[in-house]
Design goal:
Layout (H helix, E strand, L loop, with lengths): L6 E6 L3 H16 L3 E2 L7 E6 L6 H20 L4 E6 H6 L1 H7 L3 E3 L7 H9 L4 E3 L6 H5 L9 E5 L1 E2 L10 H4 L4 E2 L2 H13 L4 E5 L7 E2 L2 E2 H8 L7 E5 L8 H9 L6 E3 L7 H6 L6 H14 L4 E8 L6 H14 L3 E6 L17 H26 L3 E9 L5 E5 L5 E5 L7 E9 L3 E9 L3
Parallel strand pairs: 1-2, 1-3, 3-4, 4-5, 5-6, 7-10, 10-13, 14-15, 15-16, 19-21
Antiparallel strand pairs: 8-9, 11-12, 17-18, 17-20, 18-19, 20-21
Helix pairs in contact: 9-10, 13-14
EC number: 2.8.4.3
Protein name: tRNA-2-methylthio-N(6)-dimethylallyladenosine synthase
Main location: cytoplasm
């Protein structure tokens, strides 16, 4: 039996939903009387894991070993370790066998974390990978103090079953949180200091309640006093309704930014991925969005080297990138996830070929991101200041198009400042203040 931990550290990997979950786990630990600490000093370290990326499971075991060595070297002891998130859901009991951790908890059960930690402190390693429908949200503490830009999960799970993806197996079926609960949490976030809220979901634009869709939810959130900005991610082309497109035209607080993953530019590859769109339907959808919001910044996801992808099919992806002109995008080499249909396809693309394709794709995406940033130079826009910069008096914030903007001036984090975008780099811009708005 060990004593109950007094300090905690939560380390999150992967997507924005994991960041949200990590914040909520930290709030649970704090509500249970624990104090936040660095990983090298904390009595318990929670690894909030992601199972999407290559070798995700092995990286978890590597982190566990490193944490133990670092604490033993510094403090002469090792911490309690909880593995949470999608790797915990996928691996379950195997984690105890391989790493002898104290707690394993899946992404739908982390509201039970304090009880699991208490059992582990009493000498019983604890496992909970149940997947109850949204019960965790009712058990989480009220939001207290948050950053100017905050995440809010509104939808979880996925019914799309893309052949490369483990999300339906680790997060479960698509389910939407109740409208009233979302509005209540959004108001609590604003009361706690948020000026911007990003609505999250594996397929966030699949959110629905009765006859309401995500566009209706956004229009209601727009009425919350003090909420200046609304964003949402990640969307699926199949759920991009006309109502949501029209919201980009009508709702001033809805930022002109859309992350809409396409994954590939070849119709054959898209069909093999079990994506429900074609190259043409995706491009026509973007045309409809741009028709109502011409200044919208577009973002996407790409997988190179999907099993069987030919050189010509990869060229289709490059030509789609050229046609769209993404403001930013994420790109990855395909890696087989155990249990997914794509992992069983015989025609796996050689690693060297995937490396070369990824370099070419990223060069095109970086080119277009820099071009988009350069095209915004001279615009006047409002920047939400979020964190200190590296230079004296420098603060960093986000433009409406989700660009990082550096500004020097007499302002505080959380201020909304009207600036002229004066210079562009590949990943950020420099702003010159025009009119400072009240915080």
């Amino acid at each position: 039996m060990t004593s109950k931990p007094k300090t905690y550290h939560v380390k999150s990997f992967g997507c924005q939903m994991n960041v949200y979950d990590g914040e909520r786990m930290a709030e649970l630990m704090a509500a249970d009387g624990l104090t936040q600490a660095d990983a090298v000093d904390a009595d318990i370290v929670v690894l909030n894991t992601c199972h999407i990326r290559e070798r995700a499971t092995e990286k978890v075991y590597s982190d566990i070993g490193r944490l133990r060595k670092d604490q033993l070297r510094k403090n002469g002891k090792t911490p309690m370790i909880a593995v949470a998130g999608c790797v915990a859901q996928a691996e379950g009991q195997e984690i105890f066998t391989r790493a002898k951790v104290d707690v394993v908890v899946g992404p739908q059960a982390y509201h039970n974390l304090p009880d699991l930690v208490a059992k582990a402190a009493a000498g019983t390693p604890s496992l909970d990978t149940d997947m109850p429908l949204l019960s965790k949200f009712g058990a989480l503490p009220t939001r207290r103090k948050v950053a100017p830009s905050a995440f809010l999960t509104v939808q979880e799970g996925c019914d799309k079953f893309c052949t490369y993806c483990v999300v339906p197996y680790t997060r479960g079926a698509e389910i939407s949180r109740p409208f009233a609960a979302i509005v209540d949490e959004a108001k609590a976030l604003v009361d706690a200091g948020a000026r911007e809220i990003t609505l999250l979901g594996q397929n966030v634009n699949a959110w629905s309640e009765d006859t309401r869709g995500l566009h209706d939810l956004i229009r209601d959130l727009d009425r919350i006093p003090g909420l200046a900005r609304i964003r949402y991610t990640t969307s699926h082309p199949n759920d991009m309704t006309q109502g949501l497109i029209d919201a980009h035209r009508d709702v001033e607080s809805l930022m002109p930014f859309l992350h809409l993953p396409v994954q590939a530019g070849s119709d054959r590859v898209l069909k093999a991925m079990n994506r429900s769109h074609t190259r043409d339907s995706y491009l026509r959808l973007l045309d409809r969005v741009r028709a109502v919001r011409p200044d919208i910044a577009l973002s996407g996801d790409f997988i190179v080297g999907f099993p069987g992808e030919t050189d010509a099919e990869f060229e289709d992806t490059l030509s789609l990138v050229d046609a769209v002109g993404y403001a930013q995008a994420y790109s990855f080499k395909y890696s087989p996830r155990p249990g997914t249909p794509a992992a069983a396809i015989v025609e796996q693309v050689p690693e060297a070929v995937m490396d070369e394709r990824l370099q070419r794709l990223q060069a095109a995406l970086n080119r277009d991101q820099h071009a988009f940033n350069a095209a915004t130079v001279g615009r006047t826009c409002t920047v939400l200041l979020e964190r200190p910069g590296k230079l004296p008096g420098q603060l960093i914030g986000k433009s409406p198009w989700l660009q990082s903007v550096h500004l020097i001036g007499d302002h505080a984090i959380g201020d909304l400042v009207e600036v002229t975008l004066a210079a562009a780099g590949p990943n950020s811009l420099t702003g010159i203040e025009r009119i400072a708005q009240a915080a």
